[in-house]
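QUALITY CONTROL LOG
STEP: pairwise intake check
CHECKER ROLE: data steward
CRITERIA: each record must contain a sequence immediately followed by its structure tokens, with no blank fields

ENTRY 1 OF 2
RESULT FIELD BELOW
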Amino acid sequence: MNIGVLCPKCGLMQMNQEACKSCGAPLSDSAPAPSLSFVPSTPQEIQYAPDPPSPHSPPLKGGAENVAAARLSFHGKGGELFGIYLINIFLSLVTLGIYYFWGKVKIRNYLFSHTEFWQERFVYRGTGKELLVGFLKALVLFFIPLYALNAAPALLETGLVFQAVATGLTYGIVMVFVPLAMVGARRYRLSRTSWRGIRFSFRGGAWGFIKIFGLGSILSTITLGLYFPFFDAKRYNFMVSQSYFGNRKFGFDGMGKDLFRSFLFAIFLTLPTLGLYWFWYWAKRQRYYWEHTSCGPARFRSTVTGRALMNLHLANFLIALVTLGLGWPWILTRKIRFVCKYLTLEGLMDLAEIRQDAKQANATGEALSGFLDADFSLG
């Protein structure tokens, strides 16, 4: 059964149509994509057409004939997102900020619905009401008590001992709530995201991540930051290895020690390169993390480079500076398109074995992450 054609320009497989959805190249004279045969007695396996080899890409392990690769693609446009952004600002002002949560959902709906993998778009199923309720819960459980604890010494005119105790308690509460917010936000966002009708989920316990975060923060401080690569890898490992697509678990087999020498090298080159060498370190970190992340038998691969990462951030900084922040929609779409450009999934995905296994989650952690700026991103 023939399922489409290969684009002669970008090499991505497309359904039978006149032009490539990714690059716009005409498909009339394109070669047909490899046929897929399905045997009723065996599970359905979807095999991705391999991308054309790049001179800058490392050789594929196991031989190209045994490896399939699929790339994410993003079809959103900064101008379209800017229109949504302006409407959100106007309605948020009119409703005294209440519409902000519904506007946030509209933006996420747009971004997910324009991100495609294997001819299927992602779907975001969160609601503005959930975000509003989560915000109110976080306000009562975290922000008001923390504000009261900070204001009490000044209002009560207490001594230095009481002020020191209040300050210590404040830092202690923040150290607990930051990892709690990161876990809660990830649990909520994955539970509201689906692909091919199957939802993602996160099943890690908050207490386990609190211990990783607390110990890692202490050791990083004591070692003047030298423990950070180990701490960073443990955080990433927890977030990835507790994530699921339906009943299929993600995996991570990376180690912080593998990045330690590169981290030291980046520290030594900070002054000579005016800090620019950190882009090369973060690119290596992204490549390493993705290449040690798996979903069943399939593994991710990133080809991002330090120069490409530097150009992205410097250009985004100039856009934000010139437009006085109004270019944010273009910056956001550029970031997503950048990730999609350099990231692929290699291997076979046996979709017949993946079953719906959604888990419940509320938006309180999502709201806490907004209060604390404690978001977590994969790569």
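ENTRY 2 OF 2
RESULT FIELD BELOW
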Amino acid sequence: MKVVLTANAEADLEAIGDWIAEDAPQRAISFISEIRQACEQLGEMPKAHPLLPGREAAGIRRRVFGNYLIFYTVNTQVEVLHVLHGARDYDAILFPR
């Protein structure tokens, strides 16, 4: 299945890369590459990861990647919505009031 990253997900990856690059520029490049690969792998088995607990009706799934969470939906394609550090209040980001 095709995987697309939204503008928000691309912005998240850029921010993650910038943050890591402050201390380790080479690691920032490799880490972002690893996260992108993890996103692409979602197309192989898109429903392998669980729906968000308590928010199942939204259809958003979550894949854990180290300390980061990849949030995505599955329709005719996999759409990666956000890539966020697990310590962030992702509920407020995914479901703004």
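INTAKE CHECK: passed for both entries
DESCRIPTIVE NOTE, ENTRY 2: The chain has one domain: 3-94.
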